[in-house]
Amino acid sequence: MSKGNPSLRITSVLDSVSIGRHDAVLTPIPFVSPMQRTVSAPAKVNLILDVLGKRPDGYHDVAMLMVRLSLHDRVRVALSSGDQITVDCPGLELAAGEQNIAARAARLFLDHAGRQTGVDICIDKRIPAAAGLGGGSSDAAAVLMALNDLLATDLSRSELQALGVRLGADVPFFLCGETVAWATGIGEVLEPWHGLPPCWLVLVNPGFAVSTAWVYQNLGLTHCRHMSKIPRFPERMADLAQLLRNDLEAVTSARYPEIAGIKAQLVKAGALGVLMSGSGPTVFGVFAGQAAAENAAAQLALGNGWWTAAVSPV
Description:
This protein is of the alpha+beta class. The protein has 9 helices and 13 strands.
């Protein structure tokens, strides 16, 4: 493993996450060739998402408390002859050619490194798409890490993050190697945050996609806010629940009343706090323990047609 790529996680042990009423076990994929790597690409939630203002370049300044989760995609990256970049994601229709963020990550890396090679990417998708969980950004980060290892380019973490922010504001978080981080700027300025008490989360996705661009376009900021301060470490679970806030939730929930319905059902199932993640539509509830979270996930999966998962920070 390249010493400049400390965040690279090769799938080498059993990982599990409770999804709906079943435990989906991610079976380790052995290396079948020195020319390929399989990397875990974790989901995230935002415990805090403050939008501070719109920048002249069209991006928004934000302050976010981001948490990496045990739910993850598996991204296999293989070098091939020629110079084509292909992406396959069984069960999901992807943008054609290099419009897909994973393909764009590969092209960006190769151009930056001055390398010419074919790259075949296969994504075992476990994270719902366009769901506010950062799945696409995490897949892109996984591609950057895998290529850094495969091509022995030895780019540092900061160099990878500088590439990542050109792909998306969430990508640097998935390259930082932290379970929880306070993110500012457009999301690329990251500070470790070690105050998260042991907890479990229940994710609930209603089954439709939400465009992040649409949410920001409809945010309707009337003024710029002062920079949010990094939150104090919560001493109790109740303190953690009090931290939860998301400026984007009002926009998404106004269009999709299902968001409020999911929040109410999570509270009824015992969640100590509830919030929409990112631009939505996934909502999460905070639970003190694994058993309570898994019971709630199973309960909410019945009869609603919702995707659910009980997950933990990793």
